[in-house]
Amino acid sequence: MITLRKITLENRRAIFNLEVSEEQRRFVASNLSSVASCYVLATNGGHPLPFAIYSDEQPVGFVMLTYGITGYEIPSIAHDSYCILRLMVDKHYQNQGYGREAMNKILDFIRTYPAGPAHYCWISYKADNLPAKKLYESFGFRDNGEIFGDELITVLTL
Ligand SMILES: CC(C)(COP(=O)(O)OP(=O)(O)OC[C@H]1O[C@@H](n2cnc3c(N)ncnc32)[C@H](O)[C@@H]1OP(=O)(O)O)[C@@H](O)C(=O)NCCC(=O)NCCS
Protein backbone atom coordinates (compact mmCIF):
# COMPACT_ATOMS: atom_id res chain seq x y z
CA MET A 1 0.00 0.00 0.00
CA ILE A 2 1.19 3.51 -0.85
CA THR A 3 1.36 6.05 1.99
CA LEU A 4 2.62 9.63 2.27
CA ARG A 5 4.85 10.08 5.30
CA LYS A 6 6.70 12.94 6.93
CA ILE A 7 10.42 13.38 6.32
CA THR A 8 12.00 12.46 9.65
CA LEU A 9 15.48 12.27 11.17
CA GLU A 10 15.29 8.51 10.63
CA ASN A 11 14.19 8.40 6.98
CA ARG A 12 15.80 11.54 5.59
CA ARG A 13 18.91 9.89 4.14
CA ALA A 14 16.88 7.17 2.42
CA ILE A 15 14.73 9.89 0.84
CA PHE A 16 17.75 11.95 -0.27
CA ASN A 17 19.17 8.82 -1.93
CA LEU A 18 16.11 8.20 -4.11
CA GLU A 19 16.76 9.30 -7.68
CA VAL A 20 15.32 9.34 -11.17
CA SER A 21 17.18 8.10 -14.26
CA GLU A 22 19.83 10.29 -15.85
CA GLU A 23 17.50 11.22 -18.75
CA GLN A 24 14.80 12.29 -16.27
CA ARG A 25 17.04 14.59 -14.20
CA ARG A 26 16.02 17.64 -16.20
CA PHE A 27 12.38 17.04 -15.17
CA VAL A 28 12.83 17.22 -11.40
CA ALA A 29 15.34 18.57 -8.85
CA SER A 30 17.10 16.22 -6.45
CA ASN A 31 15.20 15.44 -3.25
CA LEU A 32 17.95 17.05 -1.20
CA SER A 33 17.52 20.28 -3.15
CA SER A 34 13.72 20.06 -2.81
CA VAL A 35 13.90 19.69 0.97
CA ALA A 36 16.27 22.69 1.06
CA SER A 37 13.67 24.66 -0.97
CA CYS A 38 11.07 23.69 1.63
CA TYR A 39 13.19 25.35 4.30
CA VAL A 40 13.51 28.54 2.26
CA LEU A 41 9.77 28.60 1.57
CA ALA A 42 8.88 27.94 5.20
CA THR A 43 11.09 30.77 6.42
CA ASN A 44 9.71 33.20 3.81
CA GLY A 45 5.96 32.98 4.33
CA GLY A 46 5.26 29.87 2.24
CA HIS A 47 3.54 26.62 3.20
CA PRO A 48 5.68 23.71 1.97
CA LEU A 49 4.43 20.19 2.65
CA PRO A 50 7.17 17.67 1.73
CA PHE A 51 6.38 13.93 1.86
CA ALA A 52 8.16 10.66 1.39
CA ILE A 53 6.17 8.21 -0.73
CA TYR A 54 6.28 4.70 0.77
CA SER A 55 5.22 1.37 -0.66
CA ASP A 56 4.48 -0.53 2.54
CA GLU A 57 7.71 0.07 4.54
CA GLN A 58 9.88 0.86 1.48
CA PRO A 59 10.56 4.53 0.57
CA VAL A 60 10.00 4.79 -3.22
CA GLY A 61 9.54 8.47 -3.96
CA PHE A 62 9.09 12.07 -2.91
CA VAL A 63 6.61 14.88 -3.44
CA MET A 64 6.37 18.43 -2.23
CA LEU A 65 3.14 20.41 -2.04
CA THR A 66 2.87 24.15 -1.60
CA TYR A 67 -0.03 26.46 -0.88
CA GLY A 68 -0.41 30.05 -2.03
CA ILE A 69 3.26 30.88 -2.51
CA THR A 70 3.95 34.54 -1.88
CA GLY A 71 6.98 36.65 -2.70
CA TYR A 72 8.09 34.51 -5.62
CA GLU A 73 7.61 34.94 -9.33
CA ILE A 74 4.64 32.64 -9.79
CA PRO A 75 1.94 31.85 -12.32
CA SER A 76 -1.37 33.69 -11.77
CA ILE A 77 -3.09 30.43 -10.77
CA ALA A 78 -0.85 30.07 -7.71
CA HIS A 79 -2.71 32.34 -5.28
CA ASP A 80 -4.83 30.33 -2.84
CA SER A 81 -4.18 27.14 -4.78
CA TYR A 82 -2.24 24.00 -4.03
CA CYS A 83 0.72 23.10 -6.18
CA ILE A 84 2.17 19.61 -6.60
CA LEU A 85 5.91 20.04 -7.05
CA ARG A 86 8.79 17.64 -7.50
CA LEU A 87 6.78 14.43 -7.75
CA MET A 88 9.26 11.62 -8.31
CA VAL A 89 9.39 7.84 -8.09
CA ASP A 90 12.88 6.35 -7.84
CA LYS A 91 14.11 4.79 -11.10
CA HIS A 92 14.04 1.29 -9.56
CA TYR A 93 10.36 1.58 -8.64
CA GLN A 94 8.87 3.27 -11.71
CA ASN A 95 6.16 1.73 -13.94
CA GLN A 96 4.69 -0.29 -11.07
CA GLY A 97 1.69 1.94 -10.43
CA TYR A 98 3.26 3.80 -7.50
CA GLY A 99 3.11 7.24 -9.16
CA ARG A 100 -0.60 6.82 -9.93
CA GLU A 101 -1.40 5.59 -6.41
CA ALA A 102 0.68 8.43 -4.92
CA MET A 103 -1.32 10.95 -6.99
CA ASN A 104 -4.55 9.48 -5.56
CA LYS A 105 -3.22 9.93 -2.03
CA ILE A 106 -1.85 13.41 -2.77
CA LEU A 107 -5.21 14.63 -4.15
CA ASP A 108 -7.12 13.07 -1.24
CA PHE A 109 -4.80 14.96 1.12
CA ILE A 110 -5.11 18.25 -0.78
CA ARG A 111 -8.91 17.91 -0.63
CA THR A 112 -8.63 18.08 3.17
CA TYR A 113 -7.32 21.66 2.55
CA PRO A 114 -4.50 21.27 5.10
CA ALA A 115 -3.06 24.78 4.62
CA GLY A 116 -6.22 26.71 3.71
CA PRO A 117 -9.11 26.87 1.23
CA ALA A 118 -8.51 26.53 -2.51
CA HIS A 119 -10.36 26.05 -5.78
CA TYR A 120 -7.47 24.72 -7.82
CA CYS A 121 -4.47 22.46 -7.78
CA TRP A 122 -1.76 23.13 -10.36
CA ILE A 123 1.42 21.54 -11.60
CA SER A 124 4.10 22.81 -13.95
CA TYR A 125 5.80 20.31 -16.23
CA LYS A 126 8.09 20.25 -19.25
CA ALA A 127 6.17 19.83 -22.51
CA ASP A 128 8.17 16.76 -23.52
CA ASN A 129 7.56 14.95 -20.20
CA LEU A 130 4.89 12.76 -21.76
CA PRO A 131 4.59 10.19 -18.91
CA ALA A 132 3.92 13.04 -16.45
CA LYS A 133 1.50 14.79 -18.83
CA LYS A 134 -0.43 11.52 -19.36
CA LEU A 135 -0.55 10.83 -15.64
CA TYR A 136 -1.83 14.33 -14.77
CA GLU A 137 -4.42 14.34 -17.58
CA SER A 138 -5.79 11.01 -16.35
CA PHE A 139 -6.61 12.75 -13.04
CA GLY A 140 -8.45 15.57 -14.85
CA PHE A 141 -5.65 18.15 -15.03
CA ARG A 142 -5.82 20.35 -18.13
CA ASP A 143 -3.24 22.79 -19.49
CA ASN A 144 -4.41 26.38 -18.97
CA GLY A 145 -2.23 27.84 -21.72
CA GLU A 146 0.09 29.58 -19.28
CA ILE A 147 3.84 29.03 -19.52
CA PHE A 148 6.00 29.35 -16.40
CA GLY A 149 9.71 29.51 -17.18
CA ASP A 150 10.06 26.68 -19.69
CA GLU A 151 7.17 24.67 -18.27
CA LEU A 152 3.46 24.33 -19.04
CA ILE A 153 0.86 24.86 -16.31
CA THR A 154 -1.80 22.20 -15.88
CA VAL A 155 -4.74 22.75 -13.56
CA LEU A 156 -7.36 20.66 -11.73
CA THR A 157 -10.51 22.18 -10.23
CA LEU A 158 -10.76 20.75 -6.72
C1 LIG B 1 6.11 10.64 -13.54
C2 LIG B 1 6.44 9.53 -12.51
C3 LIG B 1 6.33 10.10 -11.11
C4 LIG B 1 5.40 8.42 -12.69
O1 LIG B 1 5.64 7.45 -11.67
P1 LIG B 1 5.48 5.88 -11.94
O2 LIG B 1 5.41 5.20 -10.63
O3 LIG B 1 6.51 5.42 -12.90
O4 LIG B 1 4.04 5.86 -12.67
P2 LIG B 1 2.98 4.67 -12.70
O5 LIG B 1 3.66 3.35 -12.85
O6 LIG B 1 2.03 4.82 -11.57
O7 LIG B 1 2.23 5.03 -14.04
C5 LIG B 1 1.25 6.06 -13.98
C6 LIG B 1 0.98 6.64 -15.33
O8 LIG B 1 2.10 7.39 -15.75
C7 LIG B 1 2.18 7.34 -17.17
N1 LIG B 1 3.46 6.73 -17.52
C8 LIG B 1 4.38 6.21 -16.66
N2 LIG B 1 5.48 5.82 -17.36
C9 LIG B 1 5.23 6.10 -18.66
C10 LIG B 1 5.96 5.97 -19.87
N3 LIG B 1 7.20 5.44 -19.88
N4 LIG B 1 5.40 6.40 -21.02
C11 LIG B 1 4.15 6.93 -21.03
N5 LIG B 1 3.40 7.08 -19.91
C12 LIG B 1 3.93 6.68 -18.76
C13 LIG B 1 1.00 6.52 -17.63
O9 LIG B 1 -0.07 7.41 -17.85
C14 LIG B 1 0.72 5.67 -16.44
O10 LIG B 1 -0.62 5.34 -16.44
P3 LIG B 1 -1.18 3.86 -16.72
O11 LIG B 1 -1.50 3.38 -15.35
O12 LIG B 1 -2.37 4.13 -17.56
O13 LIG B 1 -0.11 3.07 -17.41
C15 LIG B 1 7.86 8.91 -12.75
O14 LIG B 1 7.95 8.52 -14.10
C16 LIG B 1 9.01 9.86 -12.43
O15 LIG B 1 9.46 9.95 -11.28
N6 LIG B 1 9.51 10.56 -13.47
C17 LIG B 1 10.68 11.44 -13.30
C18 LIG B 1 10.35 12.68 -12.52
C19 LIG B 1 9.27 13.49 -13.18
O16 LIG B 1 9.22 13.64 -14.39
N7 LIG B 1 8.37 14.02 -12.33
C20 LIG B 1 7.29 14.88 -12.78
C21 LIG B 1 7.76 16.30 -12.76
S1 LIG B 1 6.49 17.39 -13.38
Automatic annotation (TrEMBL):
Gene3D superfamilies in the record: 3.40.630.30, The crystal structure of the spermine/spermidine acetyltransferase from enterococcus faecali
This protein's record includes keyword 4Fe-4S: no
Superkingdom of this protein's organism: Bacteria
Gene Ontology terms for molecular function: acyltransferase activity, transferring groups other than amino-acyl groups
Keywords: Transferase
All residue ranges annotated as the N-acetyltransferase domain in the record: 2-158
This protein's name: GCN5 family acetyltransferase
Gene source species: Paenibacillus solani
